[in-house]
Amino acid sequence: MSKKLSLNFRENLISFAWTWICLLIIIGIISLFSLWMMQKTFNKGSEVAMQISTLKNETASANIAFKVEIQEWKNILLRGKDQDDREIYLSKFEKQQKRVNSYLNNSASICSQLNLNEPCKEIEVIYTQHNQLGDKYIENIDNSSLENYDAIHKVDESVRGLDRDLEKKMTEITIIFSKLEADKHAEILAAIQEKYDTLKFFILMVMVIALTITGFSLLRILRSAQN
Prior knowledge:
The chain is an all-alpha fold. 93% of the residues lie in helices and 0% in strands.
């Protein structure tokens, strides 16, 4: 009888041990999978957020370069009376114009990769408007003399205020991308928090089940020992 009791006790202990081993393995596998999913979510979201951040920086740089371009235009008017001086400042103006176009081209490329349809269309509008404005500036310079104040004033008046709408659009598109960047970061945090809460709930449930099974197993072992 004692031998039978010892055998039953050992079988119950082995069963108890295997139950815990299986539960620990299940918890480990699910936890590792959940952590992998959290990392995947973070990496994917961070990549998109980085692209949006780059896009925002490109449009902001285009806006800054455009302001410098306008200043170079004013330098032509103020200091370009002599033909040689005019060529120098005109060259600086055209160089700055190319910089703006470069930033806008980069913006359009990144925007297309992110499939942001409406902002992409707005960038195309800005790009076209910027080139049209540059052509208008050059046309007025080529057909005008800058030898006296009246001539300079006439050229300036012919294009005065045309840059404001374009500058406003550049500022607005940068604000849009800033908001998109903030929204993306919030989306990443929310997704990771959701997966963390799911994992935490699962582990707690498994622990409750494990403790319940442990209680029944110990009760069975005690009864076996008593019998």
